Amino acid sequence: MTGILQAGRPPLILASTSKTRARLLDSAGLSYIAEAPGLDEDTMREAIGGEKTLDPHDVAEVLARAKAEAVSDLARGAVVIGGDQILAFENRILSKPGTMEAARKQLLDLNGKTHQLHTAVAVAKDGAAVWAYTDVATLTMRKLSPEFIGHYLAAAGEAVLGSVGAYQIESLGIQLFEKIDGDFFSILGLPLLPLLDTLRREGVIEG
């Protein structure tokens, strides 16, 4: 079934190595290739988000646009999807933890509190973004004991290091939360419904 709605249409590229974003496109039946954008995301995030230069909403969109445009510039004629997700907590932007100890500290910080996920997606053609969208979800963690956090990390393993916030709500991470307000696909990393609508409008998939 993959690609059945794309016959004879422009090629589609996902400017990301995220397995979760790839799974979302797979589940929607899209045919695409994945390409790493080749950007130093940490440096860019620090440059545009440091000292409150931009708010988290704008940081996510700027990065999503940059990823899509970087790949699109080298793939003329294709339609390129870029995405980014920013976790905002108490006037700070949290990055993906680099180690299990950093993941533990991050979960202890978020423990029993509320944070926001700003998830952006952009579509680019011939080196320029033609559309971008950012969604915001609000998540409240339940009060967790340090022992539970340790058991959770041991069970979830290093897969949590690929997630901002050190959780994955599509699996064990759902047990960390008391309340979630927002679009499920956006929380996973891609506002899928607005993206599909744009791909139809751009003639990439059948309407």
General description of the model:
A hairpin with a 2-residue loop joins strand 3 (79-89) and strand 4. Helix 2 runs antiparallel to helix 3 (56-72) and helix 4 (100-110) crosses helix 5. The radius of gyration is 17 Å and the shape is globular. The protein contains seven helices and seven strands. The chain has 207 residues and is α/β, with parallel strands linked by helices. The protein is 35% helix and 24% strand. The chain has a single domain (12-201), classed as Maf protein.
What would you say about this model in short?
By secondary structure, the chain is α/β, with parallel strands linked by helices. Helix content is 35%, strand content 24%.
How many β-strand stretches? 7
Strand content: 15-25%
Envelope shape: globular
Note the total helix count.
7
Whole-number total of structural domains: 1
List SSEs in N-to-C order: EHEHHEEHEEHEHH
Largest sheet: 7 strands, mixed
The fold-level CATH name is: Maf protein
Task: Average the pLDDT over all residues and give the rounded result.
Answer: 92
Question: Portion of residues in helices?
Answer: 25-40%
Structural class: alpha/beta
Keywords:
globular, 207 residues, Maf protein, 35% helix, alpha/beta, seven-stranded mixed sheet, single chain, 24% strand
